[in-house]
Amino acid sequence: MLSPVPRPVHLKLFLGIAALLLSACEAARLPPHIGRVRGGAGEQQLSKDEMFAFDEALPWLSYVREHGVQQFVAMFHDNKALTSDELLWGDEIEYHLVRLDEKQKTAKVALRAEEVLEVLRQKEHQFGRRDGFGEACSWHPEYGAWMVEGTPRVPYGGYTADLRRVEHNMRLRRKRLAAVLRPDEHAITMPAFPTLGVGDFAEPAAAAGNDATLSASAPDALITPLPRFHALTRNIRLRRGSKVDIRAPLLRDAKTDAAELARGIEMDAMAYGMGCCCLQVTFQARDIDESRHLYDHLAVLAPVMLALTAATPVLHGRLADTD
User: Fold this and answer.
1) Cβ neighbours for 170, distance < 8 A, ≥ 6 positions apart
2) What is the SS3 assignment for 27?
3) Which of 11, 48, 246, 308 is the most interior residue, by most CB within 10 Å?
4) CA proximity to 147, closest of 105, 189, 205
């Protein structure tokens, strides 16, 4: 996934280690109420509860930081000796919903993810297998109102037969997603939609209003209508004291203006980063040592895989000097 504004390395390191440690704890067959791999059936969804505004959250930040660390340390000590011989893993694929108009020769993001997800969940609940035999899918919202995430309903295991399941389940997800789209809509798997935020780029047209983003090109209608995403967008902007300022190098040709080249490709909303799609793979490690081993390897391999899968030559309607 394209990340135009890298986060501090120490933060990524902490979050990565935390995720792997919790993954190792999960391997110990925790009680069902704690939640296992999306419930094993994809029933758990993001909460629709109202969120604190930034100024409302300020008095609680110190408490949350202190007790968050204490909780993490307590969980670590409670579970650091647990092991599991069972390897569980899975993949997540994010899709852009795109409307192609053959007559007008236009491509626009289709802001129908919420509607599409509701239909997919209903069909999975009615027809999807829950016995662990045969493949089934699980569907989840993403940041963008045109984005859908699909995962296998039941995680893969550590056998050769599970490797054969991967492509079959990926094909099944695409088939089921395509079946609920309109004739002129398509599920596109690419990192960034090339003309996001440029001209008439959405269908239906994105409603005006940018209270969360204050963006000049990406209205709030692009954000999935879940309180979490809108609060996240607004609170990050308020905390930094300014709009998001994403810059990517502009491709230089014979007619490129020097001032434009210096500015690069300017993007002023989280949608330009959070609106990227990717393929993710999640592993449940056997124990804490295997978690560390896996993390150390991924720290080296991830940049290589990122370079090998580079596929974002256009951002915000401009040719980028990257991929």
Assistant:
1) 91, 93
2) coil
3) 246
4) 189
